[in-house]
UniProtKB/TrEMBL annotation:
Pfam families: p450. The keyword DNA repair does not apply. This is Cytochrome P450. GO terms for molecular function: heme binding; iron ion binding; oxidoreductase activity, acting on paired donors, with incorporation or reduction of molecular oxygen; steroid hydroxylase activity. Gene3D superfamilies: Cytochrome P450. SUPFAM superfamilies: Cytochrome P450. Keywords: Heme, Iron, Metal-binding, Monooxygenase, Oxidoreductase. Its cofactor is heme. It comes from Adineta steineri. The lineage of its organism: Eukaryota, Metazoa, Spiralia, Gnathifera, Rotifera.
Length: 243
C-alpha cells in the first residue's frame, strides 16, 4: 500500500511537471514580444491547421493579420513564420553558417548514421550533402538546362491551346509539366508525360503522394508528443512492412 502511494505521488508529480512545462512553453513568443495567434493548450495551433483544407492558406491568413514575422506553435514547439525578405536574406545568406537543415519528416526522425537524404539530414551531414550538390545549381548549369525547360513549357502551352478556350483543371497540366522538367533536367529522361497520360513514371509519382503522411494519427501524435517519436516511428515502420 505504501509503495502504491509513493508511485502514485511520483506519477502525479511527473504529470504536474509535464503540464507546467507545456504551459510555460507558450510564453516563448510573449517573452520576446513576437505577435501571433493564441495557442491552444497541448495542441498549440495544430487543431486549426489540421482542420483547414490548405495549410498555406491559413499561414497566409495569419500573415495578413500578424505581419511578416510572427510565431505559432506546433504542439509545444515554437515556430517562426517569416515572410520578410531582409530577414530571410540575413538567415539564408549572411548568417547561413549559423543555420542548417530543415524540418525532418516523421518517418526519418529516428534514422541513424548516414541513412538520411538531403531533406532529412542534419548538421554536418546536411552541410556535406549541400556542398556536394551546390555546383549542380550554379548559374552556368542552370543556363544549360534552359533549353530543356523551354521545351517542357512549349509542350505545356500546346496542351493549353488544345483546350480551345474551354474550362479545364490546369493543376493536372502543371503536375505533368513539373515532372517533365524534373525528369529531363535531373535524370536526362524524355518521358513526354505531358502527352502520354498513361506514363508509368507519372503513375508511380502520384502513388507516392496519395497518402498525406502528416494527416495520419500516428504522425499527429508524434507532433504533439515528440518524446514518443522513437516508439511511434518503429510502430510506423512495422505497419508499413505488414501492408
Amino acid at each position: 500500500m505504501f509503495i502504491t502511494i509513493i508511485l502514485l505521488t511520483i506519477l502525479i508529480c511527473l504529470i504536474t511537471i509535464y503540464l507546467y512545462k507545456i504551459k510555460s512553453s507558450y510564453d516563448y513568443f510573449v517573452r520576446r514580444n513576437i505577435p501571433g495567434p493564441s495557442p491552444q493548450f497541448f495542441f498549440g495551433h495544430y487543431l486549426t491547421l489540421w482542420n483547414v483544407p490548405f495549410y498555406s492558406r491559413q499561414i497566409q491568413k495569419w500573415t495578413q493579420q500578424y505581419g511578416n514575422i510572427y510565431g505559432i506553435f506546433e504542439g509545444i514547439r515554437p515556430v517562426y513564420v517569416v515572410s520578410d525578405v531582409d530577414f530571410l536574406q540575413e538567415v539564408f545568406v549572411k548568417q547561413f553558417s549559423s543555420f542548417h537543415s530543415r524540418r525532418r519528416p516523421f518517418i526519418t526522425r529516428n534514422f541513424k548514421g548516414n541513412r538520411g537524404h538531403l531533406f532529412s539530414a542534419q548538421a554536418d551531414q546536411w552541410r556535406r550533402q549541400r556542398h556536394v550538390i551546390n555546383p549542380t545549381f550554379s548559374a552556368a548549369k542552370l543556363k544549360m538546362m534552359t533549353p530543356l525547360i523551354n521545351q517542357c513549357i512549349e509542350s505545356f502551352m500546346n496542351k493549353v491551346n488544345d483546350m480551345n478556350g474551354a474550362e479545364f483543371n490546369i493543376y493536372t497540366l502543371y503536375k505533368r509539366m513539373t515532372m517533365d522538367v524534373i525528369c529531363r533536367c535531373a535524370f536526362g529522361i524524355d518521358t513526354d508525360m505531358q502527352n502520354d497520360i498513361d506514363n508509368i513514371y507519372m503513375k508511380k509519382s502520384i502513388a507516392c503522394f496519395e497518402i498525406d503522411i502528416e494527416k495520419l494519427f500516428i504522425v499527429k501524435l508524434s507532433n504533439v508528443m515528440p518524446f514518443l517519436i522513437p516508439l511511434l516511428s518503429q510502430i510506423f515502420r512495422f505497419s508499413l512492412l505488414m501492408t
